[in-house]
Amino acid sequence: MQTSDNPFSTALSLIVNMDSALLSIVQLSLQVSLMAVIIASVLALPLGAALALWRFPGRNVVIVALNALMGLPPVVAGLCVYLLLSRAGPLGEWGLLFTPTAMVIAQVILVLPIIAALTRQQVEALHGEYAEQLNSLGLSRLSMIPTLLWDARFGLLTVILAGFGRASAEVGAVMIVGGNIDGVTRVMTTSIVLETSKGNLPMALGLGIILLALVTMINAIAHIIGETAKRRLG
Amino acid sequence: MNAHHTPPVATLELDSVGFIHRGHTLLKPTSLRLSGCQRTLIMGPNGAGKSLLMRLAHGLITPTSGSVRWQGSPPAQAMVFQRPVLLRRSALDNLTYVLAINKAPRPELTTLTRKAQAMSALEKFGLAHLAKRPARVLSGGEQQRLTLARAWLLNPQVLFLDEPTSALDPAAIKAVEDAVLEFHHSGTRIVMTTHDLHQARRLANDIVFLHNGELLEHTPASDFFTAPASREAKAFIRGELVW
Description:
The complex is a heterodimer of chains A (about 230) and B (about 240).
Chain A: H1 7-17, H2 20-53, H3 59-69, H4 74-85, H5 100-136, H6 141-151, H7 153-169, H8 172-178, H9 188-197, H10 201-233
Chain B: E1 12-21, E2 24-34, E3 39-43, H1 50-58, E4 65-70, E5 77-80, H2 91-101, H3 114-124, H4 140-153, E6 158-162, H5 170-185, E7 189-193, H6 197-203, E8 206-211, E9 214-220, H7 221-226, H8 231-237
Parallel strand pairs in B: 3-7, 3-8, 5-6, 6-7
Antiparallel strand pairs in B: 1-2, 1-4, 8-9
Helix pairs in contact in B: 2-3, 2-4, 3-4, 4-5
């Protein structure tokens, strides 16, 4: 990758030259973060909705714990997954350490509390409005979950984007469990760390600009889809 | 009358049903028997406990004392609320939604697909041209008609309505009242709250009068409006505020 002193022209030349090393880094970044967000959403949306609907002893403890975990430092999540997956760890036999799968697992742990906690809030508010009608229709709490999630979909889109933002921006977890191996587990954020430590600041900034542009693009697409649907449905 | 065989409506018995919330008695122990396919209107000033009594009867709220019982098996019920609660999807989809979760469609519609059943209900309530429109951008009157169409598809033996017309203009009120009569005509028992005396005169067979969380009388409508038994009901009919 050739560099100049100006980060913007570096970013531009990176994009224009489209070299395969950069492409594979961008691709892996998106793959890992999107996969983590999809898995976390599949788990956290029903979990958050269930937490909104059921009253049980210790519910407040769970809610506070989830809210606190929204601020879980990525390096701590990475360290925990590292200990689980390392050769000596309980899941060491799986041989997942320093693979993209390990990075997805670590990011799921980071993203899941965000999506679950925010889903709980959104669904609880919507349930306040819908509860009597859905009860009158004879729905059980379990069968209310799909209805409430679907009707909260515009708010939940933002929730999922918040989760994606967290996944695509963090470096600590993917660095520890991925190891920043060139061509295997190197992603945008770990590349930026590497280039910075090498003193190649224009390259680091150039990569940063590309990352920001990608995240902005994904958010813009989601925003447009959400706004169009919202305007249609009132 | 309905061409279909309508089973007799089960009798609802409230036995000393009371409701206390955080030390406040919202409904004093109340016994009430609602039998036959009547149109019962629950009346009383604001805060009398009308909506609460209806929610207890429908089973949305569990009483803190006494019991709510249906003689025989509980009938199919539906409720229309003061503020329509519609899902964030099209008018048509709001109706197919209840058909998907409800296993007992109207007998005259069983041969149709869900979508066709929903369309027939929209047509019945004059909403067919709005089928594709998002339910939540409809006018207040259209929204309330849509909740009635939704209730219609549930084929209820008992329909509860909680001040369904309080936020509507005269034309929309007329449409709702016509729908209530249509329900009754097809064999559905009506239980409805209102504080509109004219509406009660138009619709009621019998009146349940509440005041301050206490049932003061349950009388045929003709008696209630000509010779109310309680002092409070007399004042209420004269339009004097009773609290």
